[in-house]
Design a protein that fits this description.
The protein contains ten helices and six strands. By secondary structure, it is an alpha+beta fold. The protein folds into two domains: 2-67, Arc Repressor Mutant, subunit A; 82-179, Winged helix-like DNA-binding domain superfamily/Winged helix DNA-binding domain (Arc Repressor Mutant, subunit A, Orthogonal Bundle). Strand 2 (50-55) and strand 3 (58-63) form a beta hairpin. The longest helix has 17 residues, at 29-45. The radius of gyration is 19 Å and the shape is globular.
Length: 183
């Protein structure tokens, strides 16, 4: 169970309440709390680069404070550096098909997009909003438009054609059915 909790904290960019963690791994709240305390101590005593931070009764994986300078320098470079090919691909899909749920984006790209989305959000090129189906949906920002020097997403090359692409629309419809089979 501790391994499962660790995995959830690792892949999420957000903090989890004790209730959410216990619900996700299917154990009682006090057991989840004990495992989180053990995991927190494991990281602190192991001289590792990660820690479990607890703020306002929410748990989140963070980097070790002694590595703050290195991490800040890396993130600074990531934010101001050129976009990578996976970031460009993700950004392109969001620009042409957004707002789009992460699961739909991953269906199109065929890979996990969590880290890429986080980096694009840090750069201010993508934002998320909760959709009517309670899924987070990603869309481009005004900064993205400024970055490209355009004022409207419809100014993108072949926007109308790619925004309405039948193959992608069919793929996304199948994904929606898998997510919510009752609709």
């Amino acid at each position: 169970m501790k391994s499962k909790i660790e995995s959830l904290l690792f892949v999420s960019g957000n903090a989890f309440s004790l209730e959410k963690i216990s619900s996700l791994v299917g154990i009682k709240k006090d057991e989840a709390g004990n495992l989180l305390d053990e995991l927190k101590k494991d990281y602190e005593n192991g001289k590792r680069g990660l820690r479990i931070a607890v703020v306002d009764n929410k748990y989140q994986m963070t980097t070790a404070p002694e590595n703050a300078g290195l991490v800040q320098e890396f993130l600074k470079e990531e934010i101001i550096g050129e976009l990578t090919r996976p970031q460009l691909e993700t950004l392109t899909v969001i620009a042409y098909r957004g707002p789009i749920a992460k699961i739909e984006l991953e269906q199109i790209r065929g890979v996990n997009c969590s880290l890429i989305l986080r980096n694009l959000m840090i750069r201010g090129l993508v934002e998320s909003k909760s959709g009517e189906d309670n899924l987070e949906r990603y869309l481009i920002t005004h900064d993205f438009l400024k970055y490209l020097g355009i004022t409207d997403v419809k100014e993108l090359p072949d926007y109308e054609k790619l925004n309405k692409d039948k193959n992608l629309t069919d793929l996304l419809e199948r994904t929606k059915e898998e997510i919510n089979p009752n609709h």
